[in-house]
Design a protein that fits this description.
The chain is an alpha+beta fold. It has six helices and nine strands, in the order αβααβββαββββαβα. Helices cover 26% and strands 18% of the residues. Strands 1, 2, 3, 4, 5, 6, 7, 8 and 9 form a nine-stranded mixed beta sheet that branches. The protein starts with a helix and ends in an 8-residue tail after the last helix.
């Protein structure tokens, strides 16, 4: 792992708070490597252990890998769909990144409420060197960020990106950003409560 990635995860732990009773997911990472054909980045695994699958401020969703048919999940770590791989409008890249990357090499780890897609570019054999790629629904193109998932999120929550990387800018004003696990969010809505109002 690059030196910045453990520091970024530590920084995330300082700025992001888990607001529900469920914090973190236990994942069989050996099974993940077998099913997905690769291990996943260390900072991502640390995030999943600390926070799990859920939402940051109702804006950024973090997905987890699924290794069993008994875990049906709509939002999971996955490759792009066949439809996306063959759609010309999806294969649009920011000028600096055109011709450098393939859609087939992207692995989705998250998304936004504004329908952006958050991925890794998985061409390096070392997952800890995978950069982040974001498909901005507002710009209708991919942009590449030379950092890991934790650093990407940390700079997002600290509003440190020179050019805002996602389509919705509501996180720019986030004070004490919160993470809510999928299970707790679903349980609150089932009880007729809005968990984000507290």
């Amino acid at each position: 792992m690059s030196e910045g990635r453990p520091a970024a995860m530590a920084g995330l732990g300082e700025v992001l708070s888990c607001i529900g009773p469920t914090c973190g997911d236990t994942i069989d990472w050996i099974a993940v490597e077998r099913i997905y054909g690769t291990s996943l980045p260390t900072d991502y695994r640390a995030f999943v252990a600390a926070f799990g699958s859920g939402m940051i401020e109702q804006m950024v969703a973090i997905f987890i890998p699924v290794v069993s048919a008994a875990e049906p999940r709509m939002l999971k770590v996955s490759r792009l769909s066949e439809a996306a791989l063959t759609a010309d409008e999806v294969n649009q890249w920011a000028l600096a990144d055109r011709g450098r990357y393939r859609l087939e090499d992207l692995l989705i780890w998250g998304g936004t409420a504004a329908a952006d897609t958050l991925c890794w570019i998985t061409t390096d054999p070392d997952p800890d060197r995978w950069p982040v790629a974001v498909y901005s629904r507002g710009d209708l193109e991919w942009s590449v960020y030379p950092c890991g998932m934790a650093e990407f999120l940390l700079e997002l929550l600290r509003n440190e990106w020179q050019r805002w990387p996602i389509s919705d800018d509501s996180l720019q004003d986030a004070v004490d950003p919160r993470f809510l696990h999928d299970k707790d969010e679903a349980a609150s809505y089932e009880a007729g409560l809005d968990p984000w109002e507290y």
